[in-house]
Design brief:
This protein is 92% helix and 0% strand. The chain contains 4 helices and no strands.
Length: 135
């Protein structure tokens, strides 16, 4: 396989969009945590506390997603530098590392989404049980 400057450049838009999506998720969670914190300080509800514990896990996962995504982008840029300098073999390995880091970031993202879906299922089940009791 031959690698040139355009090969790692193909990842730039994908990584940039992923980092933007990760940042949006982080900001959404940060706002949710602030709101739940305020509610918890007012009435010390144990359900809110368990939600905050879940959100803490998700924030840590998002932080890891962002870190691996940024590292992937770093190695992608470093690969381009190596190609520019004429070190094609080193550039190949660096590009490989960039792809692996991106895969790790995506894997962590999948785990974070799974946790999010489980939390939503819990809320939906609670609502359904409440509706069933009212009938």
């Amino acid at each position: 396989m031959e690698i040139d400057l355009t090969t790692p450049a193909l990842l730039f838009p994908a990584i940039s969009l992923l980092l933007l999506a990760y940042t949006n998720r982080f900001l959404t969670l940060a706002n949710l945590i602030r709101g739940l914190h305020k509610q918890y300080m007012e009435n010390h509800d144990s359900i809110i506390l368990s939600q905050l514990v879940n959100l803490r896990k998700r924030v840590l996962l998002i932080k890891s997603m962002q870190a691996y995504g940024i590292a992937s982008l770093f190695f992608c840029v470093f690969c381009m530098f190596l190609l520019f300098a004429g070190y094609e073999l080193s550039a190949r390995y660096t590009f490989g590392v960039s792809l692996i880091l991106l895969l790790i970031s995506l894997g962590i993202s999948l785990r974070e989404i799974q946790i999010s879906v489980l939390a939503l299922k819990t809320h939906l089940t609670d609502i359904e049980e409440h509706q069933h009791r009212l009938r």
